[in-house]
Amino acid sequence: MLSPAVLELLEADPATSSFKVGTEERKRGVGSFFLVKADEADTDAFPIAKSGRGHGIALGAIFDRIGLDYKTFDYTFDIKPFTYEEEGISGYELSLKEKSPRTAATSSEEE
Asked: Does the N terminus or the C terminus of the chain have fewer Cβ atoms within 10 A?
């Protein structure tokens, strides 16, 4: 879920914003996710979508590929901006902060 505060931090408009998603691969799985704003015409980008009472980015396929069990666990991430000046890329790094078992309440919010 992307709260209104997170949408503001990401400078994202739920109606038009989409993001490219990258990961930092480590020996023991993924260390971080990276979100980089994409052009509206970019077909490889993930749009922001309505999800329950809020908004989210449908990352299920990526989570499946890297082995994050999002159906059993809720994940909380710290978000901080990053810039790679040499490459002219800026975006947001999401590092895993907390993992907790899903409850019936959090599971039903996404339906």
From this structure: C
